[in-house]
Each structure stands twice: as C-alpha cells, then as structure tokens.
Amino acid sequence: MTPRTPVTTPAGATGTADTDDADSTDGTSSGTGTVAGATTFAGLTLDRHVHASDRAVNLARDVLGGLTANPRELPPKWFYDATGGMLFDEITRLPEYYPTRRERAILDDHASDIAAACPADTLVELGSGTSEKTRLLLDALRATGGLRKFVAFDVDESTLTQAGRSLIAVYPDLAVHAVVGDFERHLSHLPSGGRRLIAFLGGTIGNMRPAKRGAFLRALREQCGSTDALLLGTDLVKDPDRLVAAYDDGAGVTAAFNRNVLTVINRELGADFNIRGFAHVVHWNAADAWIEMRLRAVRDQQVTIDSLALAVDFQRGDDLLTEISAKFTRDRITTELADTGWAVAQQWTDPEGDFAVTLATPSTTPTAASV
Ligand SMILES: C[S@@+](CC[C@H](N)C(=O)[O-])C[C@H]1O[C@@H](n2cnc3c(N)ncnc32)[C@H](O)[C@@H]1O
Fold it and tell me: What angle do CA 212, 156, 61 make, to 5 degrees?
C-alpha cells in the first residue's frame, strides 16, 4: 500500500478522539428520557447521534485504519446504507439464510412468555433494521396492557425511518422514537425511564469479537436499571456447510451485500474500487467459532481513496475481512452474560436447535469501563 505524501484525512479521522461529545451537543437527549432537540415528523420522533459530518469522519478513520492494517479489515456497520439495508432485508428471506426464520419461530412461540417475564412499558431495539420480527414482541407487550413506547436504534437512518413510519401506521397509539446512533458509542444516549426491555436480535452481537462483545454488554448493563431486561438473539454453532451456505447464497445477494461496502467507500470517500475486482469469500473459522466474510482481490490492482489521499495496492488473492459472525453454544451465552453483569432468566431455542433467544436481567454491577 502506498500512502501518497502526505497522508491527510478529514479533521479528526486519524485522531483517537471520538466525536461522541460533539454528537450530543445538538440538544438531543442524553439518557434523561427527554427528546429535546429531536425532530418529530409524521408522528415519528427522530433523534440523531450520527450526523453526516461525523459519518464521514468515522468512515474515513475506519477505512484508513482498516486498509493500512495487516490483515486488512473493515467494521461491518459500513455495509448499511439504504442499499445495504435493502439487501440485508432480502437476505433474511433467502432459503439458505435460516437465522431470521428460526428467531421468528422462537418469538412466535414465546413472545407472550417474554412479555410475562418482563412486562415493559418501553421496548428498545438495538440494530433494529426493519423491525419486522419485533412486531411479535410489540403485540405481546401490548397485550399486557403496559406498552407505551418503542425505541428503534440503528446506524442506518433510511431503514430506520422507513421502519418507524410503518410501525406508526400499524400501532397509532404507540410512541415511536427512532434513534440514529452507533451502539458501540451511543448507548448512554438511549432514552431512559420506565421499565425497558432491550432487544438485540438477528445475531448482530456475533459481529463483534469477544472483547468488544464484553465491553458492549457491560456498557449496556451500566445503562440498565434493576427492572430492565435484555433480550438477546444469537445464532448457534452447527454444521459448517450450513453456516457457509447461509452467507454464500446461490442468488448472490450476500455477495452484493458484501461488495456494497466498496460502493459506500467509493461514494463517500471518493474511492475508485472496481467492485468486480473483488470476489465474495466465506470461511468458517473453527478455532474462533465464527464465519468470516471477506472480499478477495481477483487480480493485482491499486485503489485510490481521494478523501484520504491514499493509494492501496492489492495483489491477486489479497483479502479484506468485512464481517465476522460468531456462533455460540448455550453455555457460552450464559457465561458471557454472567461475566458482564447479566443473569440468564430464560432461554429458548427453535425446535431444530439452530438459534437461541435469551432473556437476561441485571445481576452484579460490572467493573470495567463502558464503551
Ligand atoms: C444483521 S442486521 C439485523 C437487523 C434486525 N435486528 C434483524 O434481526 O433482522 C444488523 C442491523 O444492525 C445495524 N447496525 C450494525 N452495526 C451497527 C452499529 N454499530 N450501531 C447501530 N446499528 C448497527 C444495521 O444497520 C442493521 O440494521
């Protein structure tokens, strides 16, 4: 890789200082339960903790760090622009992609048990996407009579606002609060108050490495009161062939989703990735118990990224890791939760034992610092 002289980046992109504090100076709520500074349109309250300028700085920082690292790696959140959100939605309906169907089956069977165990007045969903399956939880919580508010939290504003508007149409009496934020940075901005059930579905927690998962779960625990609860969806370890197929579908939708990160970088950082110059590669890493999605250079090539004044050389066969998706055992879920201040209250799997949904409540106060 050839940093052209000198390597310059947008202000702050290379620094360690986060823009979190700047994010919250726009008058948005900061865990007070208020929504001062939030905008409300068509009945939807929208709170932004990621603004266009922060997005550019954060993307630049991640791309600079990721493409100059060895091995090269990008965080999976950058898949999710409007196109990435639509492609992921398509993935959830693919025959090979069992996790969404299995998690939905569990919620179909047990949403009322979940609502009985935690009759929350507020449902918070992290990495909410389309919030499709979440309707099962909303229905069950409404049946308990106490549900007042739904907080959808996602980094992808387009999918988030679309989902929020659909929910308002279906649940006109529900306060729907959409929060554009990064769950690795903005948990302290979650609206607080009342009794909250915090859902983190879709196996998204598996996109974090163990240390990051631990920090995330601790940080979330710190934000929770004694009556709040966490509902965690996790994919389980299984036959590697099925796992690989789930991320390498015959129709090529996951490949398009994977390559979308290059389109995002081209558009937002003025890069010239040739999308067809990279193949979608899926690998089961048995030692770490996770799926790896990679983009592999199909020929020698140089990519320039104007905003970073950076040129990166790829040799044929060079990989860029774009996502890990960890697969769990039930014991490991329980242990990781216990280590981070959570106690498993109940755990359900689908009849095939492919996926688990775990309800956990705060136990001890964790000691490590929050993210
Ligand atoms: C695998 S999808 C799951 C969507 C939905 N929860 C489901 O179960 O179908 C991951 C979702 O998390 C969002 N996401 C990814 N990284 C994020 C981050 N760091 N902060 C907030 N949202 C994030 C994506 O935009 C996407 O909607």
Answer: 55
Q: Is the pLDDT of residue 22 over 90?
A: no
Token duo for residue 273? 């990735």
Single pTM value for the model: 0.90
Number of H helices, E strands in the chain: 10, 16
Atom of ligand 1 nearest to the CA of 182: 20
| Residue having the nearest C-alpha atom to atom 11 of ligand 1 | 127
Tokens of 353: 């034992």
Atom of ligand 1 nearest to the CA of 204: 1
- Across the strands, what pairs with 141? none
- Separation between Cα atoms, residue 223 and residue 38, nearest integer Å: 20
pLDDT at 37: 60
**pLDDT for residue 317 is more than 60:** yes
201 Cβ closer than 6 Å to some ligand 1 atom: yes
- For 168, the 3-state DSSP assignment is helix
**Mean pLDDT, residues 122-139:** 98
Q: Which CATH superfamily is domain 40-258+329-364 in?
A: Vaccinia Virus protein VP39 (3.40.50.150)
